[in-house]
Amino acid sequence: MEDGKIWYLTTVYASPLDDRNKKLWMDLTSLTASMDSGCIVGREFNDFLHLNEKRDGLPTSLRRCTLFQNCTNRCNLLDMGSFGFPLTWRGPVSYRGMRIYEKLDCVICNNRWRNMYLEAHVKVLHCLEFSDHHTVLLTLMDKDLTKVPKAFKIECAWLVEPSIEDL
Out of the domains of life, which is the source (predicted)? Predict the structure, then answer.
């Protein structure tokens, strides 16, 4: 990396089937245990960290939330949170005639990674027409923070100018 920081990015597309995600949680635990650098994991987990991350449809399974939370705790990963749209997936219309919305996409990281990029944040953008998922954008630094200040320049002749002290 340019700045000398070494970290790992893992992207996930998890199965919506509960029994297959158990293997993902075991693999993620094994993977993060072997890392001694910053680590960030993101994208479509097809699970919820919290019960309030679903609107309409069948109730959220507390057991599935607990399995995901237990995995993030074992791996020492924390949810980076996000701003923009609170739910990242729009599903079919439910039996009550309401569209189902869920937060299936998120970004989690370890403390080492978070300490490297204190200004990093996650924004959930608009949903594109051809997708049922909102785009999740990870920004490491705001543009304003990355601007390098311009060097101070002075012409030596200015120093002998009598009116220089009036500036």
Answer: Eukaryota
